[in-house]
């Protein structure tokens, strides 16, 4: 990409992959920058209209063909409740209804035409709460909270459910925990944990016929607030069997706070994120692909 960045979020819509926000430890301010590339082809990145609000660790998802970016941390070090919407057809940003309260490092996903934002942090508080946005009514409502409060998690929709994956706990430990939300029952269920605890990994849902998978790429382990060596591994969850498998393929070097998306041929992309070079955390603009 043009910018190396961690704390980003990634969505795919209308044959394009969009990367929003984030930061580079070598630069003084959070990014309002948005880059996109078409799926397929040579994969060249292009800058599009920047977000009205620069931020890191936002939560983004696609609803009705538009990109919704919720919350995050702004350059005045404030957790945000701002929701901004990008229309890839017009190339313009607009402002949507604010969330009921601010949060950063939460996660977003869309299921059955509803935008959900889960977890995150508000000041020193780690959140279990989940809010849902109805675009027709232009209103937010609170739904059942996750059993586990967490920030730096990922949220993904697969086969009629939401899955909250990994993150960091109130005690500042990374989590292997995975919880599934049933929107019809408004209940959460704990499913099989990942093999590794992972904060801010890349996550993407993959559908192959009647089979559904969730791919989790890299991320970082955290113990009592101390961040360990970033993971190079990828785990795949089979939604039908409820089991995880660690793939033999590994990234060339560990990554944390990265994004993921699907390429046109079904490959999983590991997009930007943080890396460690000689023990120092920095950001990388690199994008790598995994053929499943």
From TrEMBL:
SMART domains, per the entry: Kelch
Record flagged with keyword Repeat: yes
Keyword terms: Kelch repeat, Repeat
Top-level taxon: Bacteria
Signal peptide extent: none
InterPro entries on file: Kelch-typ_b-propeller, Kelch_1
Name of protein: Galactose oxidase
Organism: Paractinoplanes tereljensis
